[in-house]
Design brief:
single chain; mainly beta; eleven-stranded mixed β-barrel; seven-stranded mixed β-sheet; 10 helices; 44% strand
């Protein structure tokens, strides 16, 4: 390489190749597949940042030039002299400068749907005797250090490759030297950007010698190559970008405050979300209390400085003892404290990205606690994100004791990148016996942040400011395991003086919570609605920018309204350009499988699988053979698959085995009938014949006249047609003996029941035998944070281009989605409030306060709703309007999530993804006969669905990464597929199972018969997909015991197999009557 490069650099005899994948070479590069992930390559190159990089989205660019200007050559000479002080006569004749700007990893997006981007530069300086290469990287860490190559995440490479060189005596060729600078680690990539401008500091300098041709040197150092033209998108949409001599800075626009990268409207309340983890010893306990990822929610009314903080799932063994620590939320109060004249709160100075570490020393026991907090900025929902870790020991506060915190003041000292403070806090513990104890602790903290280096942000801020905190409220709610803090915060002078009396500075004004208070002379003031709101300031209403200015987001984009703001999103097929605002078209490969432009065999025999980059493969379905383009049925009966005492029936793509009369088994194993175990039908028949007329087991309401005796065929299975001799009524049953809804005929007539052995003759357009007819107008509903989308279904196919948002719920985290087919109403659960809400397609909403609702099940026949609560660890039921709530189960539940109702037969199914004992359970819809269906071989059974046609219960497991199904009655279990990513929710419809996947940010369809993936839908906004449900234009036929007149119950009518139960809500009144009714 060095001889070749020197030959070019010295004599300019070969053309230079600049490649978008982060390297330069003199030879024509080979195909990507021959060098990406397979270094060293056969050709020579200098790799500045070698990987599968993308510059086709309108934001990434590659610039290169040859420069002989004196100022550039002088600057290059200075860099070389600093790195190689012993070299004499550093006089470059020219420089080749190549810049890769805002390049992204091919096909990879970050968590928010945006590409990570890197900018780097290579300078090659040529002199008469040697050549030098200088690599330049941004001062901040690179945003990505790896790219996908052959579906594997592989680190980028930086180094020099000589390529193929002649062998001895010119016989053949051998691989030349490959000098690699980076290693296969993230630390190695980050080290590229961690060198300093100060050349007296340590530098990475590399020297490579090739034969006796020349010496080749590399000096690596940091360089800030950023301007507003390429980085404006890094500023807040409510900020302006300004260029400086050495870079750029972001500044919030008038009416907003922050550091420019995070800006908030003046007067607008602020929400915060985060997680809290801890390992804390309480009192003299030898073992710690540990908890992880507990939810933290906070709300600040910025125009009066009042902050509210709540942390959930705090066990009672530590909850009371955390009450003296409202300091857990003090940084929130400081960030949004009410500002006194000429003083500024934390967020207005440093924004929402900083780290905070505090040390607490309790007196007199000298217990110590460390608090570490990471503030990660404002997310797409305008929430400030916080991560908290607690470690140490705290004094014990006994159960039932309350704590009072005295008002305090704390002085904050400000410097360029560090803020410090310390104080003493006093608190009083009111013991359960009535005694009072006074304690204190010493508090020190440091806040680290990164301000814009090109201007002095703190020049207008006093070096010392005082935070005053009063009206402090603390409480531990043992019933709900919640700890709550509230406090009022003001930031002002460290000197005592006459307090400000203007209501804007005291917080005692009557402005709306979405308004800013503007002080005037004396005690006069005015209220002004915050940006994004309208009104007189006393009452403010949200402005729907999307409706008032339809073109506000520009071409090829959609507008999503939010409280006080809005968000633009590019439509499918477009992405944001480098400015972060303009939508430009993206080049997308053609999915021939979806378009139907492939040459695979018919879908009944083969499957087309899209492999990316407009490619696909054809494969025959199970039961067929061939190359996928021509598939023939396999006659399994010729292969002797069945037992010798069984009859084999070949079908297209499959076969069945059935033991001959006189034998018992599944067809694969048959034994003489005299030794076989009685079937369920035979046992049912014997029990009915032996029981009295008052006994018996019935699946549906039947006249209580005489005794029903089931009919069994020669194999012991239920006959498809069953009749009640005394009542003269007949109905159809499935293979389990359960009545098929809607099949009961009037006395004296018989329904036509489908035989399970012989397919009925085809009359007109009948669907294939293994496909259930689909209701026209069905849709898939699925939720993402802040909205619910729908995808129309055409048979088993998703109509992707007609997908759209059906419901916007800004600021919410929608977990579960359910649909009531009677009133055409959507139900969803939200964990931020938390609540369960509903809305018709014409609007309207009802909520019920909960702990952390996750799963929802609708019994449309009884007009009841069931849900799981993972905070309160219980299952509840209520009417569909949220009234008459009753706890169904509150024991032996740890992390219940999905829940499914089977109203036609009175069953309730749910799963608990408790990591120490996951399980899937069943009970009656009234809570009776609770039993565990599945307990072995589970990991994280997140998703659960019930198919009423096949009577199968299916689940997707994010731990085992499998999809499995079970017959709840025979307990026969079957694995459909494995190797899926991270399923969250699943629903069954027609031939397919549809599930949402957190890793893929997608809705995935799979065939529930063979487990093959058939389709994928990627939402326009790439973020986690949560709940999923099916909407029906009309309800499936069927009734249950509670369908008519609420079963005669005064309040809740809860069906179950063979009867129903009248139950009272937990909040009882004298008019409620409880009773059980059997049939």
């Amino acid at each position: 390489l060095l001889a070749t490069i020197c030959a070019y650099l010295c004599f300019m005899s070969h053309p230079l190749q600049v490649n978008t994948n982060g390297f330069i070479s003199l030879a024509e590069p080979t195909g990507e597949s021959e060098y990406l992930g397979k270094m060293p390559a056969s050709f020579g190159m200098i790799a500045a940042f070698l990987g599968d990089l993308d510059t086709t989205d309108g934001a990434g660019y590659v610039y290169f030039r040859q420069d002989k200007s004196p100022d550039v050559l002088q600057r290059v000479a200075e860099h070389i002299s600093q790195a190689f002080p012993s070299d004499d006569e550093i006089e470059p004749t020219h420089a080749i400068i190549v810049t890769w700007e805002n390049v992204a990893p091919q096909g990879e997006r970050g968590p928010g749907g945006e590409y990570a981007r890197n900018t780097f530069q290579l300078v090659v300086a040529n002199m008469k005797s040697a050549s030098y290469a200088i690599l330049l990287y941004p001062e901040e860490n690179m945003q990505f250090g790896s790219t996908l190559i052959d579906d594997e995440d592989q680190p980028v490479e930086v180094g020099f490759n000589e390529g193929k060189v002649p062998g001895w005596f010119s016989w053949g060729s051998t691989q030349g030297t490959y000098y690699r600078i980076t290693e296969d680690s993230e630390e190695s990539i980050n080290a590229l950007a961690q060198q300093k401008h100060d050349y007296n500091s340590a530098q990475q300098v590399y020297s490579v010698s090739i034969s006796n041709v020349s010496l080749y040197f590399l000096a690596v150092f940091s360089y800030n190559y950023e301007t507003c033209s390429s980085n404006k998108h890094k500023c807040s949409v409510f900020a302006d970008c300004r260029d400086y001599a050495d870079g750029y800075c972001c500044h919030c626009k008038p009416g907003y405050y922050g550091n420019g990268k995070d800006c908030i409207a003046e007067g607008k309340p602020q929400r915060m979300n985060g997680k809290v983890s801890g390992r804390i010893y309480v009192g003299d306990s030898p073992s710690p209390v540990e908890f992880s990822n507990n939810d933290l929610h906070s709300y600040v009314v910025t125009n009066d400085g009042r902050a509210y903080i709540a942390i959930s799932s705090i066990p009672s063994s530590i909850g009371p003892s955390l009450q003296p620590l409202p300091a857990l939320g003090e940084a929130i109060g400081w960030a949004f404290a009410l500002q006194q004249p000429d003083y500024r709160n934390g967020f207005s100075i440093i924004g929402g990205v900083f780290t905070r570490q505090a040390e607490v020393v309790f007196q007199p026991g000298n217990e110590r606690l460390t608090i570490r907090q990471e503030f990660s900025g404002i997310d797409e929902h305008d929430h400030l994100l916080i991560s908290t870790e607690l470690d140490g020991r705290i004094p014990e506060v006994p159960q039932g004791a309350t704590v009072q915190i005295e008002p305090y003041r704390e002085i904050y000292q400000y410097s360029s990148s560090l803020i410090t403070s310390s104080s003493r806090r006093d608190y009083t513990v009111n013991m359960p016996d009535g005694s009072v104890r006074t304690h204190s602790y010493l508090w020190t903290q440091s806040i680290k942040f990164q301000s814009c280096p090109h201007e002095e942000v703190l020049s207008a801020v006093p070096a010392s400011q005082q935070l005053s905190v009063d009206q402090i409220f603390v409480m531990y709610d043992s019933g709900n395991q919640l700890i709550r803090f509230a406090m009022s915060n003001k930031i002002g002078s460290i000197h005592s003086g006459i307090p400000e009396q203007n209501p804007c500075f005291t917080g005692r004004h009557g402005c709306d919570t979405n308004a800013v208070c503007r002080p005037a002379q004396g005690k006069d003031f005015s209220c002004e609605c915050a940006s994004g709101f309208t009104g007189d300031g006393r009452v403010c209403y949200d402005v729907d920018e999307c409706s008032e200015s339809p073109q506000i987001c520009g071409p090829f984009s959609v507008c999503s309204n939010q409280p006080g703001s809005f968000r633009c999103e590019c439509v499918e097929g477009f992405t944001f350009a480098g400015d972060g605002r303009t939508c430009v078209e993206t080049e997308r490969p053609v999915d021939h499988c979806q378009r139907g432009t492939h040459d695979c065999d018919a879908p009944q025999r083969s499957r087309c699988s899209y492999t990316g980059d407009s490619s696909y493969i054809c494969s025959c379905l199970p039961g067929f053979s061939g190359d996928g383009r021509a598939c023939q049925d396999i006659d399994e009966c010729q292969l002797g698959r069945c037992h010798s005492d069984a009859i084999c029936h070949n079908t297209q793509g499959s076969f069945t085995c059935q033991c001959r009369p006189g034998f018992h088994g599944d067809g694969f194993s048959c034994t003489p009938g005299s030794d076989r175990e009685k079937t369920a039908c035979e046992r049912h028949r014997e029990a009915a014949q032996a029981s009295s007329s008052s006994g018996g087991f019935f699946f549906r309401p039947r006249p209580a006249v005489g005794q029903y005796v089931p009919s069994c065929d020669a194999y012991g299975a239920y006959e498809p047609l069953q009749c009640h001799a005394s009542a003269g009524q007949c109905w159809c049953v499935d293979s389990s003996g359960l009545e098929i809804p809607g099949s009961r005929a009037q006395p004296g007539s018989r329904p036509m029941c489908k035989s399970r052995d012989v397919a009925p003759p085809l009359i007109g357009p009948t669907p294939k035998a293994d496909i259930s007819p689909l209701t026209p107008g069905a849709n898939l509903l699925f939720s993402q944070s802040g909205k619910i989308d729908h995808i129309p279904l055409d048979g088993n196919r998703m109509i992707k281009d007609e997908a759209k948002t059906v419901l916007h719920v800004p600021g919410k985290v929608v977990i579960a989605v359910a649909f009531d087919c009677v009133e055409q109403m959507i139900f969803w659960s939200d964990i931020t409030q938390p609540s369960i809400s509903r809305a018709t397609l014409q609007g309207g909403e009802t909520s019920a306060d909960l702990g952390c609702p996750e799963g929802i099940a609708i019994d449309h026949m009884s007009r009841n709703m069931y849900w799981t609560d993972s905070i309160l660890d219980r299952i509840e039921v209520s009417r569909l309007d949220g009234s008459q709530r009753r706890v169904l189960f509150d024991d032996d539940l740890i992390n219940p999530r999905p829940i499914i109702a089977d109203p036609a037969y009175g069953y309730l199914y749910w799963s608990d993804w408790n990591r120490d004992g996951p399980k899937i359970e069943r009970s009656g819809l009234d809570g009776s006969d609770r039993t565990v269906l599945v307990q072995d071989g589970l990991g994280l059974p997140n998703a659960l669905t019930f198919d009423p046609q096949s009577r199968r219960l299916c689940w997707a497991d994010a731990g085992t990464r499998k999809v499995e199904c079970i017959d709840p009655f025979s307990r026969l279990r079957r694995k459909l597929t494995e190797g899926i990513q991270y399923p969250f929710a699943i629903v069954s419809y027609g031939r397919n199972l549809y599930y949402t996947d957190w890793r893929r940010d997608a809705v995935v369809a799979m065939d529930r018969h063979d487990g093959m993936e058939v389709e994928e839908f990627l939402p326009q906004r790439r973020s986690r997909t949560y709940g999923i449900a099916i909407t029906y234009p009309q309800c499936p036929a069927g009734v249950n015991y509670c369908s008519r007149d609420n079963g005669g119950c005064s309040h809740l009518c809860l069906p179950r197999p063979g009867g129903f139960t009248c139950r009272c809500p937990d909040a009882r009144d004298g008019s409620c009557v409880e009773q059980d009714q059997n049939f």
